[in-house]
Structures are given as structure tokens and as C-alpha cells.
Design brief:
The protein is an alpha+beta fold. Helices cover 13% and strands 24% of the residues. It binds zinc ion. Zinc ion binds next to loops.
């Protein structure tokens, strides 16, 4: 039987088509700054296995289901993952991903989020190879936030966030 206390404990978002890219997460109620929104779940694999799976899935674009951890492994949101894998990138995001000491990753609201807003965080995506025009096109960003840099890619040398 649904009760108000139960509905307030339910997840504060829905997954639906995003104007930015593919599917996205949209707030179904106000989310206060600092709230934990969702854990980034998925199978934990090493980088070699991640490369192999990316090849299977058609190349580097699909790296965006991978979240890289400080110990060098990645979480593959494409296997045993949850809705967190649908969160889109934004250059000036309203959420951030934080890896805790135990290696678990949660998405937190960076600021108060209004009902209906799409949730996003900065992937700080790493691409070790040259940032050729083709690669830049493959990772083009259309987030529309004021600080948009036009790409998901972090400058080479950073090692944090999604890969
Ligand atoms: Zn952008």
C-alpha cells in the first residue's frame, strides 16, 4: 500500500528520452544540494577487459558506460548496472560523481535541482590518443550549459571520472 513516507523514499527521478543525448534522468521532485541521488552500479572489471568490451560494443563512444576508479579498474554500467549509466554529461553540471574510500561511487546533487530538470555530471572523459577532429566529433558535447567546452573530453593527463 503506497504511503507518503514510502513515496518520499522512492528515487527522485525518472529515466526518459533526453534532448541532449539518448536517455537521461529527470528529477521528479526538488532535490536538495548535497543529496545522494543514486549509486553508480555495475560490474567491476580491469582496464584490459574494459578495452575488450568497448571493442565488442563498437568502439570508444561506448566507453561512456564505464566509470573509472582510483585503483585503475572500471565499473561497467552496461553489465549489472542501474539507471546511473543513463546520466548525461554536462560541462557545468548539477551533480557530481564521488568515489568513496570503499570504492563505491555515488552521484550527489551539487546544487538544488528543480523538478523536471535533467540530472548530469561532468564525465571528465579520458581519451589517451590524439584528439583528432574525428575523435572530437565522436565526443561532441551538446549539453547547452553556459560553460560548455564543446566536448566530453578532459584535457589529456587527468585521471578521474568516466572513461
Ligand atoms: Zn557541454
Amino acid at each position: 500500500m503506497p504511503t507518503s513516507s514510502r513515496s518520499s523514499a522512492a528515487k527522485p527521478f525518472v529515466v526518459k528520452a533526453s534532448p541532449v543525448h539518448g536517455k537521461g534522468l529527470f528529477a521528479t521532485r526538488k532535490i536538495p544540494a548535497g543529496s545522494r541521488v543514486i549509486e553508480y552500479r555495475g560490474e567491476r572489471i580491469d582496464w584490459d577487459e574494459a578495452q575488450r568490451r568497448a571493442g565488442e560494443r563498437g568502439g570508444p563512444v561506448n566507453h561512456t558506460f564505464f566509470f573509472s576508479l582510483h585503483d585503475g579498474r572500471v565499473i561497467d554500467g552496461g553489465r549489472r548496472g542501474n539507471d546511473a549509466r543513463f546520466i548525461n554529461h554536462a560541462c557545468e553540471p548539477n551533480c557530481e560523481a564521488f568515489e568513496h574510500e570503499d570504492g563505491r561511487v555515488y552521484i550527489y546533487a551539487l546544487r538544488p535541482i528543480e523538478r523536471g530538470e535533467e540530472l548530469n555530471y561532468n564525465y571528465a572523459l579520458i581519451y589517451e590518443g590524439r584528439h583528432t577532429p574525428a575523435i572530437k566529433r565522436a565526443f561532441a558535447c551538446r549539453c547547452g550549459t553556459p560553460g560548455c567546452t564543446g566536448t566530453y573530453l578532459a584535457p589529456n593527463g587527468r585521471r578521474k571520472g568516466k572513461q
